[in-house]
Amino acid sequence: MLSMSANTSKIPVRIAGTGSYLPAKELTNKDLESIVDTTDEWIFSRTGIRSRRIAAEGENTSDLATEAAKNAMEQAGITADELDLIIVATISPDTITPATACYVQHNLGAKSALAFDISAACSGFLYAMEVAQRMISDGNFKNALIIGAEKLSAFTNWDDRNTCVLFGDGAGAAVLTRGDETTGRILSTKIGTDGSQTGILNIPGGGSACPTTVDNADQKLASLAMQGREVFKLAVNAMKRASEAVIEEAGLTAESIKLVVPHQANLRIIDAIADRLTIPNEKVFVNLHKYGNTSAAAVAIALDEAHREGKIERGDNIVLVGFGAGLTWAAAAIQW
Ligand code: COA
Description:
By secondary structure, this protein is of the alpha+beta class. It has ten helices and 14 strands. The protein has helices spanning 29-33, 40-47, 61-76, 100-108, 124-137, 161-164, 228-249, 267-276, 288-291, 298-308; strands spanning 2-6, 13-21, 25-28, 51-54, 85-89, 114-118, 143-151, 169-178, 185-193, 201-202, 225-226, 259-262, 317-324, 328-335. The strands form four sheets. A five-stranded mixed β-sheet has the order 1-9-14-13-12, with helices on both faces. Strands 2-8-7-5-6 form a five-stranded mixed β-sheet, with helices on both faces. Strands 3-4 form a two-stranded antiparallel sheet. Strand 5, helix 4 and strand 6 form a beta-alpha-beta unit. Helix 3 (61-76) crosses helix 4 and helix 7 (228-249) packs parallel to helix 8 (267-276). The protein binds coenzyme A.
């Protein structure tokens, strides 16, 4: 299933502010050497990751999301009363139900905001952007908070060196609001799904298909599982195609892109995409060495850091692109 929109719609939508939050505790590759049979050299050379953040006990996905949201709202100059929509993208919700967005709504005191979650793994923040953008553009909503937030450490098998070295915790957020002729706008978006590949990247247990029981608890099935090589190949192709589609739909060229903010899973995937899009590496934002793969939070955190570091300025054309379990993929071309 593919969905594409060139946003020539009734009401333009812009990003009014971004925010992020990373838990304080760092877990470095060196630290992991004493947990599983691995080395800093193996992890860094295969992935580009040096460290990741781990949420404190009792610090939930909704808490990370709330802090990132406050940052974004402060930058946007928007109060909780003015929010009418909150979407949280996550695969590590506080609870299966209610949605993590409900906890965030309460934490923020955003009483009049509609709140729900999206489960689209690492593409989740961009799925949320697509949905919020359409809801604002249709004229019924004005100020939306979209958040990617994950506490993946709660869904990691710390005995499995194939996966536990890859993931981390964190949250990123953006406030979307109505634009006008004088502001930037989301130019084009694309989201896609291929449900034939659910088995190559998933959390197999803990859901209704395979509940955690006394008999299977020691198998740690409620943890991320992955066929890394298969995922790698599909990720490069899907992110390349999605990026090209939004660049073309927005009427841009590779040369006119100031910055690409890709999903932060693996530096080799990021380099391969940049190469195939003929975009030089210095125009591609990377922070995965610090945080690892934070799934739905990754693009959102990277966007906020790039923005706060002054790498994105008013009028710049940027591309956001992600890929994840599902399989899902998503991209957006934005004039800031
Ligand atoms: N430390 C040391 N050795 C490890 C290891 C670790 N943390 N993890 C795996 N290995 C070993 C494997 O056991 C294997 O050993 P073997 O040859 O004796 O069986 C060897 O390293 C090679 O494993 P392989 O899976 O072939 O490595 P790779 O080069 O494909 O790299 C990934 C593995 C996971 C880094 C890589 O496939 C990848 O990044 N894939 C994409 C993952 C991704 O982005 N997922 C999220 C998408 S949103």
